Amino acid sequence: MRITIDEALALFLHDEVVAIPTETVYGLAAPITSSKAIEKVFSLKRRPSSNPLILHVKNAAECAKYTASLLPHFEALTECFWPGPLTLIVPVKTELVPSIARAGLSTCGFRMPLHALTQELLERCPPLVAPSANLSGRPSGTKPEHIEADFGISFPILDGGISVLGLESTILAFQEGRWRLARQGALSQEALHSVLGYTPTYLQVNEKPICPGQLFRHYAPNTRLLLSENAIGDYIVGFSDRSYPEAKKVFSLGSSSSAEQVAKNLYDTLRKLDLETIAEASVDMNIPSDGLWSTIRERLIRAANQ
Ligand code: TXA
Ligand code: MG
Fold it and tell me: What does the pLDDT read at residue 162?
């Protein structure tokens, strides 16, 4: 069900959850002031309570109200990349953020999304927790139809069109004097280098990634995906500018020369496989490894991981 900003605000006052558009993917939003609505986010998504949510703020000043300390480069990063696809995990004043949203951690991820409707909403309500709008494990929702598929046609959606980037935000956490990559995302490591003066690398703590969500199976359609440099078979996930003469059907990710286009189409294409109940498809992995391609590659590897 498509709703207006006023209706979204009214639903929040009644401890309800609303799907909101962002430039990365849609979010399943609840106000930080409603533990009831936050609980609903976890149950709707069937998300383990050990997997914390990120907080969406209207600007960096709003974020500063919740943070317990100012980390090096924090201001430079927010000035350069907010609003936009960068989430920063920082220590918080725990009394201001419900424990359920943080999964009991003393840190919280913050992001200022770049979408006119959601920015207007955030001007008029408290910060919003919002994980990607999909059932846990499924490809993230990048358009209203995806949210309807996962949560039903009467689920309230603030319709902001198709997410322009199509991949989740890049997540950084500060560890041992440096910003580290907790999740690759729509902002490239190369772009981060330009501000930090170094390329953030993954940090593993006790051999586990620092981002709890990265432990789970993710971004996956029901269709089994076979990754290959020379994709063959009846069903191919491939590119519009390549030919796959043996295939019965090609599910196109767009042009192999545009990482932006492929990122934007990725989850929609994976969901199309399920709509046609395809049992198995080969994915053309003959793609570069730099910039946004690196994130696309990582998502496909996770989506194929049964
Ligand atoms: O682009 C995005 O980031 C989207 C849109 C809606 O903003 N949101 C999103 O949220 O992708 P979610 O919950 O699907 O993914 C957030 C990830 C999870 O893997 C979670 O484990 C991690 O962030 N995370 C959240 N808080 C954390 C914390 N305090 N420490 C470490 N990881 C955290
Ligand atoms: Mg997610």
Answer: 98
Provide the pLDDT for residue 204.
Answer: 65
In the CATH scheme, what architecture does the domain 224-304 have?
3-Layer(aba) Sandwich (3.40)
Q: Which ligand is nearest to the CA of 104?
A: 1
Which atom of ligand 1 is nearest to 216's Cα?
19
Instruction: Render pLDDT for 36-75 as a digit per residue (tens, 0 to 9).
Output: 999 999 999 999 999 999 999 999 999 999 999 999 999 9
Indicate which atom in ligand 1 lies nearest the CA of residue 169: 1
Task: Convert the pLDDT of each residue in 197-245 to its tens digit.
Answer: 999 988 766 655 567 777 777 889 999 999 999 888 999 999 999 999 9
Query: What are the domain boundaries of the chain?
Result: 2-196, 224-304
Lowest-confidence pick of 36-40, 265-269, 302-306: 302-306
Contact between residue 110 and residue 59 where contact means Cβ atoms under 8 Å apart: no
- Cβ–ligand 1 distance for 172 under 6 Å, the answer no
CATH number given to 2-196: 3.90.870.10
